[in-house]
Write a structure and sequence with these properties.
Blueprint (H helix, E strand, L loop, with lengths): L2 H16 L17 E3 L16 E3 L2 E3 L3 E3 L10 H14 L2 E3 L4 H5 L4 H10 L5 E6 L8 H11 L4 E5 L2 H6 L10 H11 L4 E4 L7 H9 L4 E3 L8 H8 L5 H8 L7 H8 L5 E5 L5 H10 L3 E4 L1 H32 L5 H7 L2 E3 L3 H7 L5
Parallel strand pairs: 4-5, 4-11, 5-6, 6-7, 7-8, 8-9, 9-10, 10-11
Antiparallel strand pairs: 1-12, 2-3
Helix pairs in contact: 1-9, 2-4, 2-13, 5-7, 9-10, 12-13, 12-14
This protein binds flavin mononucleotide.
The site of flavin mononucleotide has 26 residues, from helix 1, strand 7 and helix 13.
């Protein structure tokens, strides 16, 4: 099997495991959004119809600050999923990412599984995706350019996933020169670079390095939703050290509300993701300082169970709840909510903020 085939095979295994609720920490009560309470305003000004969610991102006017996070592509069976996600993104007017394009760098036959997103979503931002290990070294900028050109993307998301790689049976474990390589890609590409995690979060310290080298946006992808430790644990042989480690590290990382508070204190576009399961969670992300909220697994599950109509319904539900939360906090736009900081933090989130000396 060549590298492309191995990557394709892994992709389809990930897709099959990610469908199961047990790998979602939000289903196990592991989301920290419950420790954020938005301040209710019993005397809102204006009409509900005046609430305006519109958001300009990567040069597109979008209906809401919501992102369908990068997930699939890379195996022929993922084409219908990406097609449905893209059609829903186009119909509603939200940004969309594709999954890691690594497989398509060595196997042309899977390019269509990614390109379908651009072809079905022409009026919204489409975000290319590669892991940091694929942009390290001499070939890095070339890989990045190919991923972007392959789908005529508006930006490239580089994912950082050290926890996942360490627990993956065949993971890459050398992350040397990651920051320098990201900087090189930023220099060489003519589209902006977003850096994201995949469910373990990004701290203020890491975000500061990323902002210094010119990253356009940081997508925190914190703890509280899809757990890649649990997914990789499922793939590890019974009795193996990695399987046992996965059972201990399943909720390792920075809970999403904490990561948003850490990253949004910096001068960058912050995307809140990781366990966002409703429009109310999205509103909490924005109140904590994010410019937008992203979700992966909810749209993925809708795609598998109900196709494009299911994803559209899920997006409409997110948008309605986001509007309700804005109105009930006396905000007519997401930026008003973000700037007003109308929230109360409960324990243990409150202690996180104090312990990390986050200035709100
Ligand atoms: C089925 C599936 C596949 C994913 N594949 C990728 C990927 O290829 N690249 C990436 O950056 N993130 C990938 N992710 C991670 C998501 O983009 C997101 O960061 C993470 O799932 C947390 O969001 P959630 O809790 O809403 O699912 C994937 C997520 C899922 C559910």
């Amino acid at each position: 099997m060549n590298e492309g085939d191995t990557t394709s095979k892994r992709k389809i295994e990930h897709v099959m495991i990610a469908e199961r609720d047990e790998i979602d920490l939000s289903v196990r009560g592991g989301s920290w959004f419950k420790y954020v309470i938005l301040e209710h305003n019993a005397l809102p000004e204006g009409s509900f119809d005046d609430v305006d969610l519109s958001w300009n991102f990567l040069g597109y006017d979008l209906s809401a600050p919501i992102i369908i996070e990068g997930m699939t592509g890379g195996h022929e069976d993922t084409l219908p999923i990406n097609k449905a996600l893209a059609e829903a993104a186009q119909r509603i007017g939200v940004a969309i990412g594709v999954g890691s394009q690594r497989a398509a760098l060595t196997n042309d036959s899977v390019i269509d599984t990614f390109l379908v997103v651009r072809n079905r979503a022409h009026d919204v931002p489409v975000i290319a995706n590669l892991g940091v290990s694929h942009i390290i070294g001499e070939q890095g900028p070339e890989n990045a350019k190919r991923a972007v050109d392959m789908i005529r993307a508006d930006a490239l998301a580089i994912h950082l996933n050290p926890l996942q790689e360490l627990l993956q049976p065949e993971g890459s474990t050398d992350f040397s020169n990651s920051l320098i390589s990201i900087r090189e890609v930023i220099r060489e590409l003519d589209v902006p670079v977003i850096v994201k995690e995949v469910g373990a979060g990004i701290s203020a310290t890491v975000a500061k390095y990323l902002v210094e080298i010119g990253v356009h946006a940081i997508d925190v992808a914190g703890v509280g939703g899809t757990s890649w430790a649990l997914i990789e644990g499922e793939r590890s042989p019974h009795g193996s050290i990695k399987k046992e480690a996965a059972s201990h590290f399943f909720d390792w990382g920075i809970p999403t509300p904490c990561a948003i508070l850490e990253v949004s204190s910096l001068d960058t576009i912050t995307i809140g993701s990781g366990g966002v399961r409703s429009g109310l969670d999205a509103a909490k992300c924005i109140a904590l300082g994010a410019h937008a909220a992203g979700a992966a697994r909810p749209f993925f599950v809708s795609a598998l169970s109900e196709g494009v109509e299911g994803i559209v319904k899920k997006l409409e539900a997110f948008i309605y709840e986001l509007k309700v939360a804005l109105f009930l906090t006396g905000s007519l736009t997401p930026s008003q909510l973000r700037l007003s900081k109308k929230y109360v933090l409960l324990e243990p989130l409150k202690s996180w903020v104090e312990g990390r000396h986050i200035f709100i």
